[in-house]
Amino acid sequence: MFRKIAVAVVLTLSVSGVSYAGLDAVKGLGKDLGKEAASTAKQGALSAVTKKLKKVQNEKGPIKFKTGKAEVDPACDKTMTAIAAIMTDYPGFHVQVDGHTDNVGKPEANMKLSQDRADAVVKYLVDKKGVAADRLSAKGFGDTQPIADNKSKAGQAKNRRVDFTVTKM
């Protein structure tokens, strides 16, 4: 509402001949509002992509690997297909695949394993699902970002996961 009032005042001054510079300010304001609207729309799309990627593993199943290995389980193909479809539906975004492990084993080994698994997901999406390689990256976090208590098997299972971080291209 404030912007409408400011525009009306500037237009009134411009019409009365008091300030032609005011008209240039209105033109600039329109450009800023257009940029703001585009930014808001892109932010909304970014949020939508993030939500869809988080939701897909709940609906189609988590991305799984054999214990101690970095090969994507072929049973996860439905999940990977859904992820690729989301990427196709939202072409203006980059997705970082975030690999995580539980705290069993040495931290250095967990960091390497989480990176290898994130790399494996990227490779699967590029090679088998046709996602453009420049739209994906991989980052391993090892056991540094647990979402559950590592003292129980159930907690450890929750911590062995793949997440996604979505950013603008």
Automatic annotation (TrEMBL):
Signal peptide extent: 1-21
Keywords: Cell outer membrane, Membrane, Signal
Gene3D superfamilies tied to this protein: OmpA-like domain
SUPFAM superfamilies for this protein: OmpA-like
Pfam families associated with the record: OmpA
InterPro entries, alphabetized: Bact_OuterMem_StrucFunc, OMP_bac, OmpA-like, OMPA-like_CS, OmpA-like_sf
Compartment list: Cell outer membrane
Domain OmpA-like positions: 52-169
Superkingdom assignment: Bacteria
Protein name: OmpA family protein
Lineage: Bacteria, Pseudomonadati, Thermodesulfobacteriota, Desulfuromonadia, Geobacterales
